[in-house]
Design a protein that fits this description.
mainly alpha; 4-stranded antiparallel sheet; two-stranded antiparallel ribbon; 21 helices; elongated
Length: about 475
């Protein structure tokens, strides 16, 4: 317990310090794990099965929480490009990277010469973008993105794991069985993928709706029972979908999406609890993966890993993005370049690499794991630290919306709330609240002036740049009022 407390404590401190310099917190968590490992402070951990289970458990929570925080109205308009990136994009990345691995390994490291199946296995392990990294970096940056880039990237990273997972399992099965890749095998794999995707989507939708019904019908005076109930339903979505042959990772993401976009009792308590829990499992997952690697072994693969990593960042990912998004004219060239840049690798490829470690028939599995781990570090260092600067350089950022009041209405209250800054247009009507013509059933409930928060009355005098918190039963009228007073 003392060791765990120290690891968590220093991970949070390092993550906080790193955020000031634009370093991804997840990369620093990996670093703490590596520092504590057997080549650092001597903690020995080499159980790939436990690491895989911790990763599976953590991804279940991370994907569900990512879906919970996603507004379906935002991703509805980007469903097409998001799904194509999550499927065709992964296939193109795997194909291009597999060819490169087959050629570069035989040239640089003849002793590790990979056959075609091993090359495509390693490529498929690294083919998907990492949801934990993408969600973390985009949500913590506080910077808005144009052209609906944020929901596109979140949808892709939250839904591209099933394709990568299927490819990894496919190539491991080919290696274990000794079979050759054939047309029948390709057809069988395609059907299996379609069934898994359909099963995952159906399982996520059904269990998501059932979760909403169960939580809303659950009548308890203890509000903290509600997030625990939601977590239980999240695990039901993952396990039951898997038992029925569907893809579990897609199921939990869609279940979270359903729960997050339906009226649910104590939603704020649920999202707050899951927000903290998600960070906890992310820290534990990256610490575990950091402990699993031996940093000394990484020294022997620096050159091939750097070449492979740069190939994926500069060639494979852009080619996959530009080909996948070719039918979608809504994205500008700058947007396509940015999507290409945010092809972050993280925990998911490392977890998929543990599948190879657990298979006795995969030759050079440890070498594969080390390559994947190094490329993950490279991706987080190069891409993760430059997401905001790349968006600014491409002119795709929007000013962050700073909320003066951290207040949200429960779903049970049929009203809308908005903030409005007092402008000269508003003061032209009068200088007190009773002189302002507000729509019916509309009230100003708070005023922020400097660092002070005021509870207003009709005689409260308004000043330029005061921030008003307004509540109304008429959402459209309230939006029009805020728009007209700017």
């Amino acid at each position: 317990m003392l060791i765990l407390a120290a690891l968590l404590f220093f991970s949070v401190l390092v993550g906080k310090a790193g955020s000031k310099y634009g370093m991804p917190a997840l990369l620093l968590f990996l670093g703490v794990g590596m520092l504590a490992g057997q080549d650092g402070f001597g903690l020995r951990f080499d159980n790939a099965a436990i690491a895989e289970f911790i990763g599976m458990f953590s991804l279940c929570i991370i994907l569900f929480s990512g879906g919970l925080d996603t507004d379906f109205k935002e991703i509805r308009t980007v469903l097409g490009p998001g799904v194509v990136l999550a499927t065709l994009g992964v296939l193109i990345t795997t194909a291009a990277t597999g060819v490169f691995i087959h050629e570069i390994m035989s040239w640089l490291l003849p002793s590790y010469k990979f056959g075609w199946t091993e090359s495509f296995l390693l490529a498929s392990i690294m083919s998907s973008t990492d949801s934990a990294s993408v969600f973390s970096i985009l949500n913590s940056s506080g910077v808005g993105l144009k052209e609906r880039l944020k929901p596109t990237l979140e949808l892709e990273s939250g839904s591209n794991d099933p394709m990568a997972y299927l490819l990894v399992i496919l190539f491991i099965s080919i290696i274990e069985s000794g079979a050759d890749f054939s047309g029948d095998l390709l057809l069988d794999s395609t059907l299996k993928f379609l069934l898994q995707m359909a099963g995952g989507a159906l399982g996520g939708i059904v269990i998501g709706y059932l979760t909403v019904k169960v939580v809303n019908a659950f009548n308890s005076s203890n509000e903290f029972f509600y997030p625990i109930m939601v977590i239980a339903c999240c695990f039901f979505a993952f396990t039951l979908t898997n038992l029925c042959g569907g893809n579990s990772y897609l199921a939990v993401y869609i279940a979270g999406l359903v729960v997050g976009n339906k009226k649910t009792a104590l939603k704020r308590t649920i999202t707050t609890f899951l927000g903290g829990f998600t960070w906890l499992v992310q820290i534990v997952m990256f610490l575990t993966l950091g402990l699993l690697v031996n940093p000394v072994e990484l020294l022997h693969i620096i050159l091939p890993a750097c070449l492979l990593g740069l190939f994926m960042i500069l060639i494979a990912r852009p080619v996959a993005v530009f080909l996948s998004l070719a039918p979608f004219k809504r994205f500008s060239m700058r947007a396509r370049i940015f999507i290409s840049w945010v092809g972050l690798r993280g925990a998911v490829p490392i977890i998929f690499a543990t599948y190879a470690l657990m298979s006795p028939d995969v030759e050079h599995a440890r070498f594969m794991f080390n390559i994947v781990f190094f490329i993950t570090i490279l991706s987080l260092l190069i891409q993760g630290t430059t997401v905001n600067s790349m968006a600014s350089w491409l002119g795709l950022t929007t000013p962050p919306v700073e909320k003066k009041f951290n207040i949200n209405l429960p779903d049970e209250i049929k009203a809308s709330m908005q903030e409005m800054t007092v402008s000269g247009i508003l003061l032209a009507e009068g200088h007190t609240l009773k002189e302002i013509d507000l729509p019916p059933d509309t009230l100003v409930i708070f005023i922020k002036r400097g660092d002070d928060y005021l509870i207003p009355t009709g005689n409260t005098r308004l000043y330029l740049n005061d921030t008003l918190l307004i509540i109304s039963r008429h959402e459209k009228r309230l939006r029009d009022l805020v728009k007209n007073m700017r």
